[in-house]
Design a protein that fits this description.
By secondary structure, the chain is an alpha/beta fold. It contains 19 helices and 22 strands. This is ASC-1-like (ASCH) protein.
């Protein structure tokens, strides 16, 4: 049994969680990535999180996204590797579904085909842009946004899809265990509608030039399309499991970047089938996807809190005291930064122990936790760990320049930002007064006062110490010299 770090002797903990097989094997949640990091030695770790954009996000959606940013921050500190977050906006979600009155075949049109690229961009901006910008600032983690439309048009994705077609007999029962028919949708080039289950979509040829499919449109009859990795048309809309198989296979071919799939806890079941297909395709161990499953958010019935559940059964499936913002996070009573800081606090609490993170929570329990959050959340600041001897120099006001390699987390530091230096449970808050970037540590010392970096060591000694911390490949990222001043009065020397 684990209790949260906020527990005081004689008082109940904020969080109480039972042990589990996975949690029992870990000291920290981030340790789940350690075997892959040690095996592949990536130059960058990218946390990949996908979300359908078919409505306002609920708490479960934002919890997964917040976990991605926080784990990216922790991984950067733990492994000294650049990290980013990739947000996949799934604009292929069905916007409308209709039935052919004669054949009873279901047809669907994606959000992209119904709304167009510009309107999709507006949806992403409205639901996520400010949220991600705030998360990026709060965690010092950069991010990129990629729509499914852009992903499926990329040569890598389309080439991987064609490779799986060569082994379709090996994977089709993994992708569709009940009937063996893999749902491949190739929307009509004229109207963008496609058979939902792809019942009459047929692969008629597959060779070195690509794949040719025939399909039937409700309005335009029979049509034929050709998928070529060198051409971003026609549109390729894959069912959920198949889309994830192709995506994970394609990302796994990049040996320089470790892609970590961030998924809600309900995906643990579906990934059994994806892994079966990956095995059938003889995917090498180094290319197998790395995944982290985040806490699942449940309705009182034990079902996953989902948009489809709310659409089908209404908000009546939830307790009356569930806050409106938990169903539509754009209804949070404060501003975006306040919401993000609250979520960062919540997920940070869950990450204090793997037992808290690798489990499920009801919306009511998460509501209780959010209510218990501190009235005054920590001041938002960049965070840096630092050796004790340098920490003391900063705390006493004697060290006024901090130097780091110019990795992704340092590129966002600006004059006026706050930096919280941490060491052995102690911390000191500083304000950035200057940011200067150089190609090397030697060049940096040619321009920055040596005593401002360390008043107790010569230039030669400092360079020797720095080289023990940063190997040449890290210095190759460039060097940033950060001028700092104490926010509070200096401590006694």
């Amino acid at each position: 049994m684990a209790v949260s770090r906020t527990t005081k002797p004689g008082t109940p903990g904020l969080l109480v969680s039972p042990n589990s097989v996975l949690a029992n094997a870990l000291l920290r949640s981030i340790d789940l990535l350690r075997p892959r990091v040690l095996a592949s030695r990536p130059s960058r770790i990218e946390f990949v999180v996908g979300t359908q954009i078919n409505g306002a996000p609920h708490l479960g959606t934002n919890l997964v996204q917040t976990a991605a940013f926080l784990l990216a921050k922790i991984a950067r500190r733990e492994f000294s590797i650049d990290t980013t977050v990739r947000f996949g906006a799934l604009d292929n979600a069905p916007h409308e579904v209709i039935l052919d009155p004669e054949t009873h075949h279901a047809y669907q049109q994606t959000y992209f085909h119904a709304l167009g690229k510009d309107r999709i961009g507006e949806l992403i901006d409205g639901y996520y842009r400010a949220f991600f910008n705030s998360l990026s600032e709060a965690t010092g983690t950069p991010y990129v946004i990629e729509t499914y439309t852009d992903q499926q048009a990329s040569p890598g994705f389309r080439a991987e899809f064609l490779r799986t077609l060569e082994r379709i007999e090996d994977i089709r029962w993994w992708m569709a265990p009940s009937h063996g028919v893999v749902h491949i949708r190739v929307p009509c080039p004229e109207c963008g509608w496609a058979e939902k289950r792809g019942d009459r979509t047929k692969l008629v040829s597959l060779d070195e030039d690509g794949a040719t499919f025939t399909a039937v449109c409700l309005d335009h009859g029979d049509y034929e399309v050709h998928i070529d990795p060198e051409d971003d048309q026609p549109y390729l809309d894959l069912a959920t499991l198949y889309r994830n198989l192709v995506k994970e296979r394609a990302l796994g071919r990049d040996g320089d970047v470790l892609h970590v799939m961030m998924k809600g806890g309900d995906w643990t079941f579906g990934c059994q089938l994806v892994d079966g297909a990956l095995g059938a395709l003889s995917t090498p161990p180094a290319a197998m996807p790395s995944r982290i499953f985040t806490p699942q958010v449940l309705a009182p019935t034990g079902a996953k809190l989902s948009k489809s559940l709310l659409r089908e059964q209404g908000k009546g499936v939830l307790p009356a005291d569930v806050e409106p913002w938990m169903l539509d996070t754009t209804a949070w009573p404060g501003d975006v930064d306040n919401y993000v800081d609250s979520l960062v606090w919540l997920v940070s609490e869950l990450l204090t122990d793997p037992k808290h993170f690798f489990r499920s929570f009801t919306v009511k329990e998460l509501g209780r936790l959010m209510t218990a959050r501190p009235v005054s959340l920590p001041v938002r600041a960049h965070e840096m760990g630092i050796y004790k001897r340098y920490f003391d120099l900063i705390a006493t006001g004697r060290k006024t320049t901090e130097i780091r390699v110019n990795d992704s987390s340092r590129r966002n530091i600006k004059v006026g930002n706050l930096i919280r230096f941490r060491c052995q449970g102690d911390e000191v808050l500083t304000r950035v007064t200057k940011v200067a970037r150089y190609d090397s540590f030697e060049e940096m010392f040619d321009h920055e006062p040596v005593a401002s970096v360390n008043p107790l060591a010569t230039r030669e000694d400092q360079l020797a110490n720095i080289r023990q911390i940063y190997p040449p490949e890290r210095e190759a990222l460039g060097v940033v010299a950060i001028g700092i001043e104490l926010v509070d009065p200096p401590r006694p020397a």
